[in-house]
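Researcher: Final request for today, and then I'll write up notes for the group meeting. The sequence and the SMILES for 2-acetamido-2-deoxy-beta-D-glucopyranose follow.
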Amino acid sequence: MASSTTLFPFLSIVALALLATAYAHHGFSVELIHHDHPRSPSYNPTLSPSDRIQAEIQRFNARAASLRAYFSHFHEYHDGYPSTYPPPSGSQSPCHPPNSPHGTTIQADLFASTDNNYYMSIRLGTPVKEIIAVPDTGSYLIWVGCEPCPKCYKKDPLFNPATSSSYTNLPCDSKPCSQLTPQRFCVNSTCTYYESYGQGIPYVIGDLAQETFTFKTTSGSFVRLPGLVFGCTHITNGTSQRNTAGIVGLGGHPLSLVSQLGSSIEHRFSYCLVPSSLTKVMTSHLNFGSDAVVSGAQTISMIDNGRQSFYAVTLDGITVGNNSLGPINSTMMIVDCGSTLTSLHGTVLERLVDALKKTISLPQVEDGQLPLCFNESTRSDYGYPDIILQLGTATITLKPYNAFLMINNHVRCLAMKPNDNFSILGNIAQQNFHIGFDLASWKISFAAADCTKN
Ligand SMILES: *[C@@H]1O[C@H](CO)[C@@H](O)[C@H](O)[C@H]1NC(C)=O
Ligand SMILES: *[C@@H]1O[C@H](CO)[C@@H](O)[C@H](O)[C@H]1NC(C)=O
Ligand SMILES: *[C@@H]1O[C@H](CO)[C@@H](O)[C@H](O)[C@H]1NC(C)=O
Ligand SMILES: *[C@@H]1O[C@H](CO)[C@@H](O)[C@H](O)[C@H]1NC(C)=O
Ligand SMILES: *[C@@H]1O[C@H](CO)[C@@H](O)[C@H](O)[C@H]1NC(C)=O
Ligand SMILES: *[C@@H]1O[C@H](CO)[C@@H](O)[C@H](O)[C@H]1NC(C)=O
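Model: Predicted protein-2-acetamido-2-deoxy-beta-D-glucopyranose complex:
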C-alpha cells in the first residue's frame, strides 16, 4: 500500500477523489450542533445548568404551541388562504395554482423562527458563504436570510445573492413555484413565498431561487449540490433575538432537502442524537443515503399525512418496567427533533405518573412546569424504570435518561408534558436511537445505538 502511494501519488489522489465523489453521491453525513454546543449561534456559556434546562422547557413550550397552531389552522390552510395573510408590498394578486382556485395543496411548515435545539452548517453559492441554519423535520422549505433584509437575524452577515455566480431567481411559472402553493405571490415575475407559522409567530417573505449548496461531511470532504431550490428571505417581522439565519426543511414535501435530493440519497435520511450530558462537547450526525440505513432496526409505517411536513406514528401502549398501563386510546405521535420534551395525552400522562410514583420510592418535589420530580439528595438507589412505548408493531425502550431530566442539583423530573390533540416524541426521548426516515416507502426505523460512536 505504502509503495503504491509513493509510486503513483497522482493516480492515488485521483482515485481517492473519484471514490470520494462516488461515496458522496451514495451517502454522506453532516454534523448536527446542539443549541448548547460552543459552535451553536445560541451558545451562552454564562447560563447555569438549571437556566439551560429552563430555557429548553421554554423552547419546548414555543414549539408545542407552534405545532398546535399548525394543526388548528390546518383546515384553514387546506381550504384557502390564512386570514392573516399579508400581501407583500408591490405584489400582484396571489397566483393560484391552475385549476385550483383555492389551493388544495398542503400547508407547509410547522415552525421556524423561534429558538431552536439543533443547528447545521450549510455553504451557499459561488464563492461559498457559510450559514448556520436549523434543520427541521417540521418544515419543508429551505430558506436563508438574504441581503437586503432589514429585520433578519444578523449575528453574521447575510447571504448576498448579488455576489454569487450560481444564484438564479425562479419565475412564477416554474414547477417549484407551483409546488409552493397556496402561499405564493408573483413579484416582478419572480416567485415569492410567504411562510407563516401560526398566530403570534413571525412570517418570512422572499424570492424562490436556485443555488449551489455545499455540505461539509463528517469525514471532512465536501459534497456540492448544484441547483437546489431554496428561499431567499428579504422580509420578516420577527425580532432579531428569536430569528434564525435559515431553515433546512427535512419534511416530506417535494421542496424539502430530502425530497429534492431524492433518488441520489435513496429517498432516505436519518439522525442519531448524542445524550444530553454530551451535547455540550460532542455533535450529533444527520445522515443521507446509504449512511442513513439503520441496521438492526424496528421498521414501521408512518401515518399517511399527504406528505405534510411532519413525521408521525401511532402510540398504542405504554409499559413502565414490567407493568403495562393498560389500554390507551391510540394517538398520533409526531417524531420531532425540534421538540425537547415528550408529550402525551393528559389522561395517559396521569396514568404514567401514577405508575412511576408507585415504582420510584424517592421523595417527590413540586416543580411548576413538569408533572413529576424527585429529590435524589438522600438516596443513591434511584430505581428509575425503563418506559416502553408501543408504536404500532415497534417497541421503543426509553432508558431513564430518555425520560427524565436533571433540572438542578439532586432534582430529576419526568421530561414530559400533557398535550391532548397529539403526542410528541421529543429529542430527549430520541437520544441514542438511530432513527431513519424512508420517504419512498414512508417508513420509519428505530434502533437503539450509541450515537457517540459514528
Ligand atoms: C383539539 O381537538 C379537539 C377535539 O378534536 C378540538 O375541538 C380542539 O379544537 C383541538 N385543539 C387544537 C388546539 O387543535
Ligand atoms: C419591480 O421592478 C421594477 C423595475 O426594475 C422596480 O422599480 C420595482 O421596485 C420592482 N418591484 C418590486 C416589488 O420589487
Ligand atoms: C408577525 O405577523 C404575524 C401575522 O400578522 C403576527 O401574528 C405576529 O405577531 C407578528 N410577529 C411579530 C414578532 O411581530
Ligand atoms: C421484569 O420481569 C423480568 C422477567 O420476568 C424480571 O427478571 C425483572 O426483575 C422484572 N423487573 C421488574 C422491575 O420488576
Ligand atoms: C378513549 O376515548 C374515549 C372518547 O374520548 C373515552 O370515553 C375513553 O374513556 C377513552 N379510553 C381510554 C382508555 O382512555
Ligand atoms: C431534598 O432533600 C433534602 C434532604 O431532605 C433537603 O435538604 C432538600 O431541601 C430537598 N430539596 C428540595 C428541592 O426539596
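Model: The helical segments are 2-7, 9-26, 49-79, 175-179, 257-261, 346-359, 400-403, 427-430. The domain at 294-453 is CATH 2.40.70.10 (Cathepsin D, subunit A; domain 1).
Researcher: Thanks, that's everything.
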